[in-house]
Description:
Number of helices of chain B: 3
Low-confidence stretches of chain A: none
Helix content of chain A: 55-70%
Shape of chain A: elongated
Strand content of chain B: under 5%
Mean pLDDT of chain A: 92
Largest sheet of chain B: none
Shape of chain B: flat
Largest interface: A-B, 54 and 55 residues
Oligomer: heterodimer
Low-confidence stretches of chain B: none
Strand order of the largest sheet of chain A: 1-2
Radius of gyration of chain A: 21 Å
Structural class of chain B: mainly alpha
Strand content of chain A: 5-15%
CATH topology of chain A: Four Helix Bundle (Hemerythrin (Met), subunit A)
CATH class of chain A: Mainly Alpha
Mean pLDDT of chain B: 89
Largest sheet of chain A: 2 strands, antiparallel
Amino acid sequence: MKASYGKLMMWIFLVSDAFTFSALLITYGLIRYSHPAFEGAVREFTFSTEYWPVPEKVFAAIPFFHGLNAPLVFVGLMTFILILSSVTMVLAVEAGHRMDRKNVEKWMLWTIVGGLAFLGCQAWEWTHFIIGTGEATMAKRFADGAWQSFEVLGANLSINQYGPPDFAALFFFITGFHGTHVFSGVLLNFLIFHNATTGVYDRRGHYEMVEKVGLYWHFVDLVWVFVFTFFYLV
Amino acid sequence: MEETKEIIVQPVNKEKVRQLVRVAIILGIVTGLEFLVAFTLHSGPLKTSIFVAMTIIKAFYIVGEFMHLRHEVKMLIWSILLPMMFVVWLLITLIYEGGSILQVR
């Protein structure tokens, strides 16, 4: 196929990884449509465990501005960070083609910074999601032979204040699985940066490893594009 | 390992970098448009299809240009696209199935 063995194997791995992410997103689609949707104007939306939440009402906070209603702004920032880090990655690959070690180092470092910034944002988002905010939501549980109401604030895998239990479970699984990919991507990027700095690729005579890890990094960005649409926008 | 050959650094391929920046700007604009749509349209099939279309545009540019797939041989392109088409089919059927589960619940 005229592609090198290493790049071909990376593509095959990425296709299989795409299946895993597809499985998660398809599960999201199935579970979401098997729950009632919120009927009515978005303005009047309140959290309830009875129907699926409107995502822009759940993800409406940004750091340092408590109480400010900024729907999807923070997650939009995360999207831009990841797209930018993809751009710096592709510039590193371009520099690698030219055997330009200095520029490979520079762009790899920016890519690592972008990846770490994204992970930092995600850590904040998870913390905010788990701790919860605003008024507690009333949920029902069956205990001592009767249905009882109780308050829920924040989220865990069995119950959450935003919607049905599956909502938080899927949030943790999908963004968590993607976050793990970003994390391993940052580790690989660091490895490439280290090898470039110590001159491994100069001695080898080519910078193809930058390209291979670049493919992985773009894939992680691609997955986020889909997660962003299907989890946060739709 | 000892140095085996002279390293010749080629000059920056300006045309290529310009093309990459252009793709980045397109991705940024499409994401911006997504935000615009998110807060101007009411949710419904139209809004969802606009989002899906924009996602496909973004995916095309990331996979085609950043991952360079558009410039690979046809065989590689199809061996990646074909399995993904079946995945899209699975997505559609299972979302439909989800609606049916809701009805019988």
